[in-house]
Amino acid sequence: MEAARTPLTVFLVAAAAASVGSPQTASESMPVLLAAQSTIRNLVATPASLSFTSSDPDAGPATSPTVTASWEIRGGEKERSWTLTVSAGSAFLGGCPNIPVTAVRVLCTSVEVPGGGATGACAGEFALSTLPQTVAAGRQGQGTKHHAVNLRFLLNDSWRYIATGGSPCTLNLTYTADAP
Q1: Which of 4, 61, 140, 175 could cross-link 154 (Cys pair, CB 3.0–4.6 Å)?
Q2: 4-57: per-residue pLDDT in tens?
Q3: Torsions phi, psi of 6, nearest 5?
Q4: 39 near 74, Cβ under 8 Å?
């Protein structure tokens, strides 16, 4: 996902007073260039699709492998924020139509930022949804910076959901990195 880098031009009316004689007001248009929006490049989540297999719900939650979402922010500014959101592609797990995605918990385990003013922190654990929810957020840092967020997904079966013949339940996810 790459946003266009278009500078904004704002015209201000300047007021000034003459230093000699009677006060006068002058107005002139002065273009002021504001910094363009940062761009995000190379957003990749590995793996992009998750599978859960639970043979014994008493054994605890079925846990996904660690998922790493990584991207690059270009034109970053220290005072600007970034966010990473995740959402499910459908309301139920693929292959398990009786298990809602809300049965899956999302846990951010770490945020990797490069320094240079860049910061990041995990959001708290939450139930997955088809609506985007913030996994992690922080400050962009100056210039071009690589960011990465590590997550886990947990399916706590607890005997509430009927198994579907031993086939895995799949979960398709959408990750969105935003750096306004």
Answers
A1: 61
A2: 222 211 111 111 112 222 222 222 333 434 456 788 889 999 886 677 666 677
A3: -110, 120
A4: yes
Please answer whether residues 129 and 88 qualify as being in contact, where contact means their C-beta atoms are separated by less than 8 angstroms: yes
| Longest CA pairwise span in the chain (Å) | 93
Percent of the chain past pLDDT 70, that is, above it, reads 72
Residue 120's Cβ-count burial label (10 Å; 0-12, 13-18, 19+) is buried
CB-based burial label for 144 (10 Å; 0-12, 13-18, 19+): middle
* Other Cβ atoms closer than 10 A to 22: 6
Rounded to an integer, what distance in angstroms lies between the CA atom of residue 175 and that of residue 86? 5
In whole angstroms, give the CA distance from residue 73 to residue 68: 16
Residue 176: exposure state from Cβ atoms within 10 A (0-12, 13-18, ≥19): middle
CA distances from 44 to 9, 18, 67, 129 (A): 33, 58, 10, 20
Of residues 1, 41, 35, 34, the one with CA closest to residue 144: 41
What's the token pair of residue 105? 């918990």
Pairing of strands 104-112, 126-127: antiparallel
38-178: CATH number: 2.60.40
CA-nearest of 139, 143, 154 to 59 is 154
Cβ-based neighbour number of residue 4 at 10 Å: 7
